[in-house]
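Database export, one record per block. Field names are fixed; values are copied verbatim from the stored entry.
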Amino acid sequence: MITFKHISKTFNNSIVLKDIDFTINEGEIIRISGTNGCGKSTLLKIATGLLKPSSGEVIYNKFSNEIGALIENPSFIENETAIYNLKFLFNLKNKFDEPKVSQLLTEFKLNPYSKIPVKKYSVGMRQKLGIIQAIMENQKIIYFDEPTRGLDEESVELFYNLINNLNKKENKTIIICSHEPLEKICFNKEYVIADGILNEKV
């Protein structure tokens, strides 16, 4: 269970989030929508510890050290290959599982043996790499910020299947912030942020 307890965030006297208070249960898929700049990315950064809230707190009952995230534009070591980047990130916490990562790259139509540096990747290719790094370590809780940005139709379908399988087969808790409807994902709940306030969509 994840509890967002009265989260507020202010930047330069401008209120971005106002008293966000809700709970996500283990194994749920949640969608949070809203216009650009409404605070979706800010909320995810607070959830993952990248930002501190002005007030309130995020409480994890368990799995707090098993979080994967793709937030805004993913950063990589630009002069190195995709597999190098993923291996580097993987080895920060775990022993690199090359067969698993190679399979994920192949599924998303990225060549695991390519010598092309990431700096030459398109927006869509970088996005796919970001999706892979968010899930490759068997994380229990996964946050995605506009995950289909730059993806072609085939890759969007792959993303749909990936998310539904991670949830149904592996009971992952997944939170997706997106202005896209993502109609083929079976969300348990949907929320909307407007004027800094979070409301459940009914």
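Remark 1: The chain has one domain: 2-200.
Remark 2: The longest helix spans residues 153-170.
End of record.
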